[in-house]
Amino acid sequence: MARSTWDSEREAAIIAAKQGGDVLAQWAGRFTTKTKGLNDLVTEADVAVQERISDTLLRKFPGDDFLGEEGSGDETKLNGSRRWIVDPIDGTTNFIHAFPFYCISIALEVDGELVVGVIYDPNRKECYSAAKGQGATCNASRLQVSSSSRLADSLINIGLRADTETSPEAMQAFVRVSGKSRSVRRLGSAALGTAYVAAGRLDAFVSHVIQPWDIAAGVVLVREAGGRVTNLRASQYNLYTRNILVSNGLIHEELGREC
Fold first, then answer.
1. Which of 78, 34, 45 is nearest to 212 (CA)?
2. Residue 235's CB: how many other CB atoms inside 10 A?
3. Are residues 119 and 37 in the same domain?
4. pLDDT of residue 93
C-alpha cells in the first residue's frame, strides 16, 4: 500500500455520511419495519440511506467495490484492492423506537487493511472521522482514548445479541464485567460505541458476535485515537473475525481475561 494519506477518501466518506443523515431525517416517522431474523430489523430508511451512500462514493471512486449491510456485496470476495464497507443505520432497533442512539458507519478497506473510518451521529450532529496515520477527530476536535488504567474505574460497553441463547458466553461476560468494572452499558450500536471509546467517553467495547459493517469504521477511529483493537483472544483483529475487543489499551488485558 503506497498511499500515506487518504484525505480525498476521508472527505468523500464524510460527505456521504452526512447525505445519508439527510435521507434518514426524511424517513423519520413514516417507515415500515421488516424482520430479517429474530429482532434483526430493517426499514425502507436503511435501504434508502445505503443507496445514497453507494451512489455518492462510487460516483467519485467508480472502480471501488462496495459491501453494505442491506444486501450489497459479498464479505468474502473482494473485487479489486479497494472496498467501501457501510452500515446505513447501525442501531436500527433504536431508530425504530426513536431512541436517539444510532449512526451511519462508513469504512474503506484497501489491500485487506482498514484505512478510513467515518461514523456520523445525526441526532447530535457529531461526525467522527479518521484515516490511517492522520489521527481521529469528532467535528473539529481531536480524539484521544481515556486514561483509565483499571477495570474497576472503567465504563464498558458490551454488545449482546437479541438471541442470547446462541451466545451464552456474552451474557456471562456481561455479568462478570458488571461486578468488576464501574459499570456496563448495552447501547445497541456497535459503531457508535466504538466511536465513544475513541472519544474517551467509554473505556472499552466488547462483542462476542459482530459483523464487518458494524465495526470497520470504529476500528480505524480507535486505533488512530491511541486505543487497541484485537479479537477476544488478544490476537490481531481482521474483518472475518466474529468477535472483538476494543479499548483504551490500558485495561485491554485485564478486561480480556473477564470476557
1. 78
2. 9
3. yes
4. 87
| pLDDT tens digits for range 36-76 | 555 556 688 888 999 999 999 999 999 999 999 876 555 55
Give the separation between CA 190 and CA 159, rounded to whole angstroms. 7
Q: What is the pLDDT of residue 111?
A: 94
Q: Are both 181 and 129 inside the same structural domain?
A: no
Contacts of 257 (CB under 8 A, 6+ apart): none
Domain boundary among 142, 162, 190: 142
Backbone dihedral region for residue 188 (phi beyond 0: left; psi -120 to 50: alpha; all else: beta): left
Q: DSSP for 194-231?
A: HHHHHTTSSSEEEESS--HHHHHHHHHHHHHTT-EEE-
Does pLDDT of 32 surpass 90? no
For 186-200, how does the pLDDT look when each residue is reduced to its tens digit (9 = 90+)? Answer: 999 999 999 999 999
- Is residue 132 domain-shared with residue 172, that is, in the same domain? no
Q: Which residues pair with 90 in a beta bridge?
A: 103
Q: How many CB atoms lie within 10 A of CB 85?
A: 27
Which domain covers residue 200, as residue numbers?
151-258
Counting Cβ atoms within 10 Å, is residue 254 exposed (0-12), middle (13-18) or buried (19+)? middle
C-alpha separations of 55 from 10, 15, 25, 48, 84 in Å = 16, 12, 18, 11, 12
Boundary-marking domain end, from 142, 162, 186 = 142
Check residues 248 and 41 and name the one with the higher pLDDT.
248
The grid cell for 259 is: 470476557
